[in-house]
Design goal:
Layout (H helix, E strand, L loop, with lengths): L2 H6 L5 H35 L3 H29 L1 H18 L6 H29 L5 H30 L4 H19 L6 H6 L3 H11 L14 H9 L9 H26 L1 H7 L6 H22 L7 H21 L5 H14 L1 H13 L6 H30 L1 H22 L8 H4 L15
Helix pairs in contact: 2-3, 2-5, 2-6, 2-7, 3-5, 3-17, 4-5, 4-7, 5-16, 5-17, 6-13, 6-16, 11-16, 11-17, 11-18, 12-13, 13-15, 13-16, 14-15, 14-16, 14-18, 16-17, 17-18
């Protein structure tokens, strides 16, 4: 049995469970850090007397950092390895969380949040690549998709902690709200200690003996692991495909990059806007600002998490291609309804947004799976980073543009624009999405010899 086959065909072992938990901690922490700032903002504004521009930058600085971190540190993880960056990144997240407690003005807080954003952005390609390269093929989609659910879990936990502190200690407790992410970061850091380097990456770097040792240690509970043989295919494929990021310019991989970046951005734009401005949107649709819109927003937020959990049960059985196509198709329907009849009864409005949130689960979890499965080891983290950076552009445009669109066009036209973006995601997926369900990672990424021949179809 060679190294690639040993990883692909392994049972889901204790090592895999611990690795998934350690990797899941990253998006949980990201959701927590990005979610807690909304609750802390009233106290921050009161203490610092922040201007509207400073308030906007406090909220947006982490998103800008994510864009930069994902774009820069994906290639770094491809060059120096996943395991080292995997640990350093958490130390930066913990240090950045602590730094927020000591800021003295809005500018310092903006800088601290920007640093946190860079670390969050770096975490996406590092975690995705490391996890994908260790997972058995039959559980890969579900485990990678779980990372998306982790973000919503972190955001929900931030709401619980933040509101509890606000009720008990008042708005002045904002420093304790922000620094609380350091506690979560230390827990995740503890889980990550001792995790091995990716054996596939070691092979790619021409270190087969280290790769063999890593697999034997990680999969020690797997029968027959002692018969493992050294496989240098990864190094040979690097020479066959070219060097570095130039691989992404090859027609096959460039199409895949367009697909992953495009559907990720088209999914994130409307979703982040709806997630961020839920009460505002519901109020514009006729639900009175206050208890009804806040309750409705909370129900919708639970719908996003429920959609992710439902999709996890389908991704490794139904498959990636039908899940993303039907996900985008069904997401567009409630947005079209809201765009055409924005005066619908409250129950219909809430039902439409809940349906949108639920159906978003399929494309949502594939944001984490597809980029890992469609690119070779040499550029896997880079491709994830580029896709993530593209999604931040979509998210930023959605959150920045939604209040302006509501004022200029009204709620009906705004919902129709969101529907058109979702339909664009559907068309992109229909023409470019491929099926990777159950495929060995070497095959789905095009690294195996049989996959290096020119493709006759999409991607």
């Amino acid at each position: 049995m060679d190294i690639h086959a040993a990883i692909d065909e392994a049972r889901f072992l204790r090592f895999h469970k611990r690795l998934v938990a350690a990797c899941l901690g990253g998006p949980v922490l990201a959701g927590y850090i990005l979610g807690i700032i909304a609750i802390a903002m009233s106290g921050i504004s009161a203490d610092f007397g922040a201007s509207p521009l400073e308030t906007s930058l406090i909220g947006a600085s982490a998103l800008l950092g994510i864009f930069l971190g994902a774009l820069v540190f994906g290639p770094v993880a491809d060059r120096i390895g996943r395991q080292l960056m995997y640990t350093i990144d958490l130390w930066v997240l913990v240090a950045g969380s602590l730094l927020q407690f000591f800021v003295q003005d809005a500018v310092q807080l903006i800088a601290a949040r920007f640093i946190l954003g860079i670390a969050i952005g770096a975490n996406y390609p590092i975690v995705n690549a490391l996890l994908a390269e260790w997972l058995p093929r039959r559980r890969r989609g579900r485990a990678l998709g779980l990372l998306q659910a982790g973000w919503f879990i972190g955001a929900a936990f931030a709401s619980l902690v933040g509101y509890s502190m606000f009720e008990i200690l008042g708005a002045a407790s904002w420093r304790w709200m922000l620094v609380s992410s350091a506690v979560l970061g230390v827990i995740v850091l503890t889980l990550r200690l001792g995790m091995p380097e990716s054996a596939r990456w070691l092979l790619h770097k021409g270190r087969p003996k280290e790769a063999k040792s890593a697999v034997r240690a990680a999969l020690a509970d797997q029968p027959g692991i002692g018969l493992l043989v050294i496989d240098t295919t990864g190094r040979q494929d690097e020479a066959a495909n070219g060097q570095g990021l130039r691989i992404l310019l090859q027609p096959r991989y460039f199409r895949r990059l367009i697909f992953c970046s495009g559907f990720y951005a088209l999914q994130a734009g409307p979703l982040f806007a709806i997630y961020t401005f839920g009460p505002t949107i519901l109020s514009a649709l006729g639900l009175a600002q206050g208890s009804h819109s806040t309750l409705g927003s909370a129900v919708i937020n639970l719908g996003f998490l429920a959609g992710c959990l439902a999709a996890l049960g389908l991704v490794d059985t139904w498959g990636r291609r039908p899940l993303i196509i039907w996900g985008f198709a069904l997401m567009s329907v409630p947005l079209l309804v809201l765009g055409i009849i924005p005066w619908a009864p409250a129950g219909v409005i809430i039902a439409c947004f809940c349906a949108y949130a639920l159906f978003s689960g399929g494309p949502g979890i594939l944001e984490w799976a597809y980029p890992c499965e469609l690119f070779p080891t040499s550029v896997r983290a880079s491709a994830v980073g580029i896709s993530t950076a593209a999604s931040r552009i979509g998210a930023a445009l959605g959150t920045f543009g939604l209040p302006l669109a509501l004022e200029a066009w009204g709620i009906g036209a705004t919902m129709l624009v969101a529907a058109l973006m979702t339909v664009a995601g559907l068309l992109l997926s229909f023409f470019l999405a491929v099926e990777t369900k159950g495929a060995p990672l070497m095959h789905s990424s095009g690294e195996s010899t049989s996959e290096l021949r020119p493709a006759s179809g999409a991607a």
